[in-house]
Design brief:
The chain has about 150 residues and is α+β, with helices and mostly antiparallel strands. The protein is built from 5 helices and 5 strands, in the order H-E-H-H-E-E-E-E-H-H. The two termini are about 25 Å apart.
């Protein structure tokens, strides 16, 4: 899935979740690094109608000074964890399991997730190359949705 901080309201609705309109992403004093698999760009909740706006949102925030968005191309994908996670510096990790969200603060556990994130970050492309993958996924989405709607 798209990381929660990057969700549009439509994407959240399609996943059955509501999001706050105010985003910590807009705090220019904070820095964010997001890494998503290319498959995330091509997998959508519900009918997919929310994805055009969601992909546009990814392109938009990837240009912000405080946000670094990476996409791991299908060809360079390392072994994938079965659940999403968010690293908060070296202090904690939020792990999204199938049944609940866990917060881990044990130094060894946090380090294991930091190392996993770093492996994905090394495999990812950033900047114009990442935006190109998002834009290509958006074009492909329009073709698919146009053929079924």
């Amino acid at each position: 899935m798209v990381p929660r901080l990057l969700w549009t309201a439509e994407y959240a609705t399609a996943t059955g979740v509501t999001v706050d309109e105010v985003s910590v992403l807009e705090d220019e004093g904070r820095r964010f690094v997001f890494v998503v698999a290319e498959a995330v760009l091509r997998t959508w909740p519900g009918s997919g109608a929310c994805m055009e706006g969601q992909l546009a949102r990814l392109v938009e925030v990837s240009g912000w000074a405080n946000v670094r968005l990476g996409v791991v191309p299908r060809a360079g994908m390392p072994r994938v964890p079965l659940h999403g996670f968010t690293v908060y510096d070296d202090a904690a990790v939020s792990v999204e399991t199938f049944t609940r969200e866990l917060t881990l603060t044990d130094a060894d556990e946090v380090r294991a997730y930091v190392e996993t994130f770093e492996r994905f970050e090394r495999a990812a492309v950033f900047g114009d190359e990442a935006r190109g993958l998002v834009e290509r996924a958006a074009r492909d989405l329009r073709k698919v949705l146009g053929s079924i709607h």
